[in-house]
Write the structure tokens for this entry.
Amino acid sequence: SKSFKMGTVRLLNNKKAQTGHTIVKSLVWFIFLIIVLFSIVLLVRTNITNTIDIKNVEAEVFYYGSLSALSFKEDLIDRSYNGIIDLNKFNNHNLESKIYYGEENYHMTAKFTLFDKSDNIIKEFIYNQDGFDKYEPLTKSTIFGPGSATKVLKEIPIMIKDNDKYYSGLLKSIIIYPNK
């Protein structure tokens, strides 16, 4: 046992052995340092968002803008009543004149349906029919991400104005936007 210790001491007293030992020790530290740096970079990359997805917010803004465009407006005092849907304004042409995404709308599509108290359909229309036909089947996909579409369902109680008559009803909306 004494000779083994002596041999080790004698081995480390040799300058060539010290250099080899230092290189091996440095190599181990270098590999350890690379692993630590790689781990830090990996943790930072997984926790930092490079893109901001605002499509859901855009759908909300579109929905409330649509309600405003379809609402009853009293021309005498220039006031809109967001809780009252004017049946004469409840059409695609009126909504497109207020919210316009261009000739080829790749951003948003929606289906608006008015129901009376008995759950009968009074009137319905689709904003951006081509987009609805294209994106609606994509909402049924089980694969999410680019190439699919997201469906947002909204339902609110409203008053319906039909000429001079008012009655309560329900507005159901399906808003669809593509995931990019």
In short: The first strand starts at residue 71 and ends at 74. Helices lie at 2-13, 15-47, 55-70, 92-98, 129-135. Residues 15-47 form the longest helix (33 residues).
